[in-house]
Amino acid sequence: MTTSPDAHATLAIHGGRPVREGMLPYGRQWLTDADVEAVVEVLRSDWITTGPKVAEFEEAVAGLAGTRHAVAFSSGTAALHGAAFAAGLGPGDEAITTPLTFCATANAVLYQGATPVFADVSDDTLTIDPDQVRRRLTPHTKAILPVDYAGHPADLDPLLALAQRHGLVVIEDAAHALGARYRGRPVGCISHMTVFSFHPVKHLTTAEGGMVTTDNADLALRLRAFRSHGIASDPRVRQAEGQWYYEMTALGFNYRLTDVACALGLSQMPRLGANVARRREIAQRYGAELSGAPALTLPAVSADVEHAWHLYPVRVDASIDRAEVFRALRAEGLGVNVHYVPVHLHPYYRNRFGYRGGEFPVAEAAYGRLISLPMFHGMSDTDADDVIAAVRKVMAYFGGGRYGRP
Ligand SMILES: *Cc1c(COP(=O)(O)O)cnc(C)c1O
Asked: What percentage of the chain exceeds 90 in pLDDT?
């Protein structure tokens, strides 16, 4: 690799020519004119929120996940909150989750007045380690919130076995994993509740939006009430029946997703399979072309999963300054990112729970080395080639030249 001309080119941070002129983002949406039309059509209709498109979108996601129920929320975060509520989490309860996630996963537990307890991740897939979860169980544990990090399903079967033995609810944060499979089953129908996000960087977008899938009718009812003030009945049904009376039976929120947003989601549905396939294609290309790059570890994929590739997180060797590599890749025109600052290291969690760093060595070590390369289904082959060229160029310098590796 160091024999290719690229590998000897001057890095852009040193005044050399960057691989790309513009910045390739790490992720972005991909919308068509037909998607825009679908939205406009709803804007001209009778219902712009909580109308027929919400139910249609819920049915489509339930179909995809293979569940009986899907409940739409105004964001993935609101959906996580709804799931924490439906699971019955409250003050005095503990819920075990991974530190290597977006803070929303743990925050949802806090919203309910319960306590998030972190368990370290496995070093290969960076998903929560079931052995670590087992060690964190107490008589107060009520739920487990695994995260399908980067689109790689967490090791769900051992977690569900633990949950069954101890009477816990598994809330899977699958914000990264729409379209992934675990041991042949689609993500969405495995855990008691599965949460998806439709933020623009995710596989399918409603601008803001989220969904909880479940096979449990009681959980679905609780989720539906929670997203609309704790009111059990549907305004559309009330209107159709000529009814005015309704009851609020729990303290809920306005977490409704609009018909406008659902029309946008529905319109992308037929392309979801192709979008996930395109991400797999890009991941395969990265894997083939970067496996020999010096001082770089590529993401591991367990034999029993089909990855959804929301992210493509690589790890630079611990001996190399990640910040320098990050700056160098940005200078080459790659909109690289880092996923994630471990949740317990955020000032809010440090101040509230007394974390000082060092509690979760695997997640913390990974965090120090991680870089997310651009990964989205709208990327062209040229974009992917630029990523490969820039990573080879930068790693040849940091991992090969300076450290004397071949
Ligand atoms: C995106 C994301 C969320 C939150 O989703 P929003 O729709 O942005 O509220 C939660 N957890 C993870 C792991 C995410 O990546």
From this structure: 89
Report helix, strand or coil for 300.
coil
Residues 6+ apart with CB under 8 A from 106: 97, 116, 118, 145, 343, 349
Place of tokens 């101040």: 351
For ligand 1, the distance from its centroid to the CA atom of residue 146, given in whole angstroms, is: 13
Token pair for 269: 């549905």
pTM reported for the whole predicted model: 0.95
Give the CATH number of domain 33-269.
3.40.640.10
The domain spans of the chain are 12-28+271-403, 33-269
Task: For residue 116, report the phi and psi dihedrals to the nearest 5 degrees.
Answer: -75, 135
- Which of 53, 142, 202, 393 is an active site residue? 202
Cα-Cα end-to-end distance for the chain: 9
pLDDT interval class at 402 (50, 70, 90): very low
Walk across the sheet containing 193-197 and list its strands.
Answer: 69-73, 210-214, 193-197, 169-173, 141-145, 94-97, 115-118
Domain range 12-28+271-403, CATH class? alpha beta
Q: What six digits make up the tokens of 28? A: 């972005």
Query: Residue 396 and residue 300: Cα distance in Å, rounded?
Result: 22
For the chain, how many residues are written?
406
**Which strand ranges, in their side-by-side order, compose the sheet holding 185-186?**
185-186, 181-182, 305-306
**pLDDT higher than 80, residue 289:** yes
In this structure, the residues whose C-beta lies within 6 A of any atom of ligand 1 are 75-77, 101-102, 104-105, 147, 173, 175-176, 197, 199, 210
Cα–Cα dist 295/403, whole Å: 9
Contact present, 109 and 145 (Cβ < 8 Å): yes
Give 184's contacts (C-beta < 8 A, 6+ positions apart).
none
Q: What is the pLDDT of residue 50?
A: 86
pLDDT band at 240 (very low <50, low <70, confident <90, very high): confident
168 pLDDT higher than 80: yes
| CA dihedral sign of residues 181, 182, 185, 187 | negative
Q: Does the annotation mark 202 as catalytic?
A: yes
